[in-house]
Amino acid sequence: MIKCAKTVLALLLIAIICCGGTFASTIENLNVTYQSSGTYVNIEAITLANGGNFFLGMTNNSGAILLKTDATGKEIWRTSLPGDDVRSLATLGDGGVVLTTTIRTVNGSEKTGYTFGGETNLIRVDKEGNILWHKNIPGIGTGDIVVSDNVIHFAGWFWENNTGFIQNYLLSTGTLINDKIHLGSETTSMIPLAMLLEDDNTLVLTGGTTSNLNEGSTCAWIAKIKNDVVQNQNIIRTGSTDPVYGTGACGYAITRAYGGGYLVVGSNPPFGVTWTNGLGWAAHINSDLSNIWVNELPRCYVPYAVVQFGDRYLIAGMDGYDDPVWLTLSVDGAIIELEKIFQNGKRSMYNDIASISDRSAALVGWVMKKDFAEGILITLSNTTGMERRELWITGTTVAIFILIGAMYFLVIRKSKLVMKNSRKFTKKKAKRKN
Predict the structure, then answer these.
(1) What's the domain range around 420?
(2) Above pLDDT 70, what percent of the chain?
(3) Cβ neighbours around 127 below 10 Å, total
(4) Which long-range contacts (CB under 8 A, 24 or more apart) does 11-18 make?
(5) Alpha-carbon span 412 to 403, nearest angstrom
(6) Whether 365 and 310 share a structural domain
(7) Is the pLDDT of residue 67 over 80?
(8) Which of 78, 242, 383, 411 would staple 268 via disulfide (CB 3.0–4.6 Å)?
(9) Is 291 a residue whose pLDDT tops 90?
(10) Are residues 325 and 398 in the same domain?
(11) Do 400 and 370 reside in the same domain of the chain?
């Protein structure tokens, strides 16, 4: 009996361990690459299309391209766009998309120093890939766009003085409907690179202070704008010195944080200089824009994108051209997983992320294949919570079967043995009497 009880207890302990066990697991569901007649392809932006499909903003030797794919990454249609690079994408309720492309110019030399200039194209495309309208904005750099009702909120900056601004355009025609909402001043530059829209139409932006190749960004910042007025703004600091760019910083992406506020990721280099070095970081910012925590991201010196990812955050970027990297971050800022793709010393990187569901996301960028770059699309799923539920179900089921078995052997089987032994004893007693 004691031996049987020990066995039952051991089996129950195994079931309890199964119930409580969990694994930090991010799995890759899809990995697709894209070529273009042997020329390089770089997928620079992604957003979800209706029906679980994707819009991919990419560039090749011929210029900017908008590609629509199905959920498996198979091409449905593609449209050539004015401009060289796709900067941002926003899906529309009618199944189309509004986006920005840029044309960047580089002046100067290594001896005299380089400066950037250029212009922006604001474009609306319908669900069949037809360009409905196109607005050229000369002398402007593109930060980000969001859409509410019939209004496009466009965040950009003037190349010549790094002064940021927001302008609103009608979605239907691209017509400008308000004056510039300025960020910064004559003495303080503010380059907006990422933006999100709150339910009350508050715009939350993050960025840096320069697009100049020859100087470091002074700081990363975050700001709120509502009803065309700057409500609040604050500085995000890393607290550490980058060996090349010092203590400055630049915010590259923003998402809503678990528990309220915002999660901002960035690096120390200024916009456009992220290929040489960097110090990546993530910051949890309160709703009043005060800093809750700022953590460095070792082995990810430029985080370009971030989304919520189940019970954590998913961040994508690069750790040098040789190392595209994605990582998962806990709600407290600890790195849980970090994954790199090594391409035999050849350059590659991730540029953007789009949430597919609470626990899945799609990443885009480029990787070197043979002698040219190919665009890459991968999808990832956070299975931690699902594994936990499955383990609890499995463990509970095992425990129930063990208890049923224990009841059978300890109660029913024991009763049968007692009755059987009782009958044997009765027969023996009767024989003795005879």
Answers:
(1) 2-20+389-433
(2) 77
(3) 18
(4) 11/398, 11/402, 12/399, 12/402, 12/403, 14/398, 15/395, 15/396, 15/398, 15/399, 15/402, 16/395, 16/399, 17/395, 18/391, 18/394, 18/395, 18/398
(5) 13
(6) yes
(7) yes
(8) 242
(9) yes
(10) no
(11) no
- Does 178 share its domain with 46? yes
Closest CA to 152 of 137, 163, 130: 137
pLDDT digits (tens, 9 = 90+) for 342-372: 544 456 789 999 999 999 999 999 887 777 8
pLDDT at 217: 84
For the chain, the domain total comes to: 2
Cα–Cα distance measured from residue 262 to residue 255, given in angstroms and rounded to the nearest whole number:
6
Question: 51 and 84, same structural domain?
Answer: yes
Residues whose CB is less than 8 angstroms from the CB of residue 53 and which lie 6 or more positions away in sequence, other chains included: 68, 69, 70, 71, 76
Which residue, among 314, 276, 281, 317, has the nearest Cα to 297 in the 3D structure? 281
Cα dihedral 268, 211, 121, 35 sign = negative
416 and 313, same domain (yes or no): no
Look at residue 426 in the predicted model and tell me its pLDDT. 55
- 61, two tokens: 């030797």
Average pLDDT of the chain is: 83
pLDDT in tens, 76-133: 999 999 999 999 999 999 999 999 999 988 777 767 767 778 999 999 999 999 999 9
Both 197 and 148 in one domain: the answer is: yes
Residues 334 and 411 both lie in one domain: no
> Tokens 């609890």 correspond to what residue?
392
Residue 84's domain is classified under what CATH number?
Answer: 2.130.10.10
Per the rule left: phi > 0, alpha: psi between -120 and 50, beta: everything else, 112 is alpha
Q: What is the pLDDT of residues 161-172, one digit of tens each?
A: 889 999 999 999
129 phi and psi, to 5 degrees? 95, 10
